[in-house]
């Protein structure tokens, strides 16, 4: 599956629209930026010193920039409750300054602190897999990817997205990772943007207008 995923991502990176799509997302082509352009950098970022291992109110606002919302009671539990403290302990075991392409698979597999944090978030009322992933991507933008139904549809529904993407990024001496950084440079978007976020934006921009809640005509698979 990872070879297929790599080929799909590379196909979109090499498309004529990839640079323009990135620039449009950040409002660099004359129009308004998408709200998601503020996701990683809002308030200085979720991985900045002093807050990297705790969920903050800014993190909860940031995920709204990506069209998801954490219910009020769940938000309070993450900010002030026992679950928030458990999540902080797990975050403290997840690398802050490493790219996905750099880490061993043990940082992402089902025994990892990252996976345990994802499961913990999923156990909370009102947090589904998309929201859980976006919260973790806010806390570890270089290591953990934003992943939603649109991107899943583009990629054909990989069974283990983190592991497949990790393998794809590390293949051929990290070639795909370098291609993502090169695209970031050519588009002139912020250098603080992670390679993972470049990947997410390019895939999402390529498909979000065609994505439908029932059957997606652009991909031919069930999209939910």
What is the radius of gyration?
17 Å
Q: Which outline best applies?
A: globular
Number of separate domains: 2
Pick out the low-confidence regions. 217-224
Alpha plus pi helix count: 10
Strand content: under 5%
Order of helices and strands: HHHHHHHHHH
Task: Provide a quick synopsis of the model.
The chain is mainly alpha-helical and 224 residues long. The protein has helices spanning 2-13, 18-25, 57-64, 72-80, 82-91, 113-122, 129-139, 149-154, 161-187, 195-207. The chain has 2 domains: 1-31 and 146-224, no CATH class; 40-144, no CATH class.
Description of the structure:
α2 (18-25) crosses α10 and α5 (82-91) runs antiparallel to α6. Helices cover 51% and strands 0% of the residues. It is globular, with a radius of gyration of 17 Å. Mean pLDDT is 93; it is low at 217-224. The longest helix has 27 residues, at 161-187. The chain has 224 residues and is mostly helical. It has ten helices and no strands.
Topology (SSEs and partners):
Elements: H1 2-13, H2 18-25, H3 57-64, H4 72-80, H5 82-91, H6 113-122, H7 129-139, H8 149-154, H9 161-187, H10 195-207
Helix pairs in contact: 1-9, 2-9, 2-10, 3-7, 4-5, 5-6, 6-7, 9-10
């Amino acid at each position: 599956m990872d070879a297929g995923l790599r080929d799909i991502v590379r196909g979109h990176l090499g498309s004529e629209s990839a640079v323009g799509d990135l620039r449009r997302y950040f409002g660099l082509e004359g129009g308004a930026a998408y709200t998601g352009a503020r996701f990683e950098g809002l308030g200085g970022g979720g991985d900045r010193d002093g807050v990297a291992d705790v969920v903050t109110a800014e993190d909860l606002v940031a995920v709204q920039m990506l069209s998801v919302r954490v219910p009020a009671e769940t938000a309070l539990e993450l900010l002030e409750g026992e679950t928030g403290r458990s999540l902080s302990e797990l975050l403290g075991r997840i690398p802050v300054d490493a790219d996905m392409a750099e880490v061993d698979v043990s940082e992402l597999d089902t025994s990892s602190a990252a996976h345990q944090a994802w499961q913990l978030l999923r156990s909370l009322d009102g947090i589904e897999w998309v929201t859980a992933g976006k919260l973790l991507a806010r806390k570890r933008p270089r290591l953990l990817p934003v992943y939603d139904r649109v991107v899943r549809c583009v990629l054909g529904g990989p069974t283990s997205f983190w592991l497949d993407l990790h393998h794809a990024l590390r293949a051929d001496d990290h070639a795909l990772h370098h291609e993502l950084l090169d695209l970031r440079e050519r588009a002139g978007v912020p250098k603080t943007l992670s390679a993972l976020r470049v990947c997410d934006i390019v895939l999402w921009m390529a498909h979000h207008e065609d994505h439908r809640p029932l059957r997606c005509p652009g991909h031919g698979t069930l999209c939910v």
